[in-house]
Amino acid sequence: MTTLADPVPGGRPGDVDRATALAGELSGQGVHGVVLSYVDTAGIGRVKTIPTAKLAAAAAWGVGMSPVFDTFLANDSIVTTDVLGSPDGDLRLYPDLDHLVVLAGQPGWAWAPVDRITQEGEPHPGCGRTVLRRIVVEAAKRHGLTFRAGIEVEWAVGQGPVAAGEFVPALHGPAYGATRQVELSDYTADLLAAFAAQGVDVEQLHPEYAAGQFEVSVGALDPVAAADRSVLVRQTIRAVARRHGLVVSFAPAVFAQGVGNGGHLHLSAWRDGRNLHSGGTGRHGMTAEAESFVAGVLAHLPALTAVTAPSPASYLRLKPSQWAGVFTAWGHETREAAVRIVTGTAGLREQAANLEVKPVDLAANPYLALTCVIAAGLDGLTSSAPLAEEITGDPARLSEREAAARDVRRLPTSLTEAVEEFRADERLRSALGSVLADAVIAVRQGEIAAVGGYDDERVAAAYRWTY
Ligand code: GLU
Ligand code: MG
């Protein structure tokens, strides 16, 4: 379980001693530096690094970094809100020692996710990891709920080096094809070894559908740990690829046309050790609370896309009949519904049952995405929201009348539409807090302006290598 307490100046109790011992161990293993990692509002991973010898000082006093990155765009230009985007001020980055790992794909380095607090020791309202910790604490306190989550990672592997900006797939076999597995045999074996060395519990790794595409899924964790893990998994995939002379893209749409890279989010709610998505009297074994949770996610989904699909390139991926789930529909193991109910195999259901949210990509800040999906679900649960009729098959083929009867609506088709939905969704905005919600709106508007007048291919190219 992730430590849910905020960092404090001087260090969380026990952390400094622990960091001192850890630094000694790390140095003994040849680790020279620690990467301190977080994700900004635009979905870009940002880092500071410290020499291993400074780990105890970082656990006590944090490491400085400007809050300006909260309103950075993917192209590194800066927008502003009432509170953020100014060149003034500084924050302290505190590593979470529970989630520090030695990076197998980057010899000499360890990695840790950070929480950011102010120099006065106050929580920083722009820190997504802090906001996610908050909603997890609140759900436990108010509703007696805990969550298990996992984020799938899809990525395209390209040959490197090629002409700047270009993507040339590093493999050619068919989707899920045995030939693809052979083509990148050494790379994927090294990747599995790196994950194992880092304690990343891989469920499966397979060649996917799109050009050069692979996917990895990992075991469920508490939401904060699941978000951290998604960042670590991508750092590892990228690092191991480089050692093989390959390049990787996590962009929602590597090309303007065709299937993109998803980052499907799996989530289950639990009370007193019982999975609410299994063993209930509702549909597919859901409890009444789980049904309402799903209804909440579906109701907020149009606004959620501003957080789960935050890039102009996300809307090149979010097209019907490409497994990205672009209708507010749910179904049992239905891969075209935005929410897929996973019941798991007989015998494993109590552990495995969960819901999968599909219109999520890897441009999303995973901390913000999980915060908003949980907030949406809790909104449904607390209001005992009724869950619409389920769908089977592709909702794209439903007639207007059938779609209306099941409350099936098309999700936003552009980032502009998504931002308008988000702006109107008070529940999601308050889950993030006004500082972060305003940053989401400003950053999305900045991204929209940054690609103003671009055709689809140019949009895909603009974000191909950023995430
Ligand atoms: N690549 C698809 C997406 O963009 C998902 C394929 C799958 O169902 O795993 O979301
Ligand atoms: Mg997939």
Assembly state here? single chain
Q: Round the Cα radius of gyration to an integer and report it.
A: 21 Å
Query: Class of the largest domain, according to the CATH hierarchy?
Result: Alpha Beta
CATH-wise, what's the superfamily of the largest domain? Glutamine synthetase/guanido kinase, catalytic domain
State the CATH topology of the largest domain: Creatine Kinase, Chain A, domain 2
Q: Main β-sheet: number of strands, strand sense, barrel status?
A: 6 strands, mixed
* Helix content, binned percent: 25-40%
Number of domains: 2
* Average pLDDT level: 97
Percent strand equals 15-25%
Number of DSSP-assigned strands: 16
Termini separation = 27 Å
Tally the helices: what do you get?
A: 15
**Spans with pLDDT under 50 lasting ≥5 residues?**
none
Class derived from helix and strand content: alpha+beta
Q: In the CATH hierarchy, what is the architecture of the largest domain at level 2?
A: 2-Layer Sandwich
Give the ligands present: glutamic acid, magnesium ion
Q: Using the alpha-carbon principal axes, give the shape.
A: globular
Q: Short description, anyone?
A:
The chain has 467 residues and is of the alpha+beta class. The protein contains 15 helices and 16 strands.
Notes on the protein architecture:
- By secondary structure, this protein is an alpha+beta fold.
- The chain has 2 domains: 15-122, Ubiquitin-like (UB roll) (Roll); 137-154 and 218-224 and 253-463, Glutamine synthetase/guanido kinase, catalytic domain (Creatine Kinase, Chain A, domain 2).
- The protein is built from 15 helices and 16 strands.
- The chain has helices at residues 15-28, 55-61, 128-143, 178-183, 185-197, 223-243, 288-308, 314-317, 349-352, 366-382, 400-405, 415-423, 426-432, 434-450, 456-463, and strands at 33-39, 45-51, 63-65, 91-95, 101-102, 109-118, 145-151, 153-159, 202-207, 213-218, 246-249, 265-271, 274-275, 330-332, 339-342, 354-357.
- Strands 1, 2, 3, 4, 5 and 6 form a 6-stranded mixed sheet that branches. Strands 7, 12, 13, 14, 15 and 16 form a 6-stranded mixed sheet that branches. It has a 4-stranded antiparallel sheet with strand order 9-10-8-11.
- The two termini are 27 Å apart.
- The mean pLDDT is 97.
- The protein binds glutamic acid and magnesium ion.
- Residues 154, 259-260, 262, 317, 323-324, 335, 358 line the site of glutamic acid.
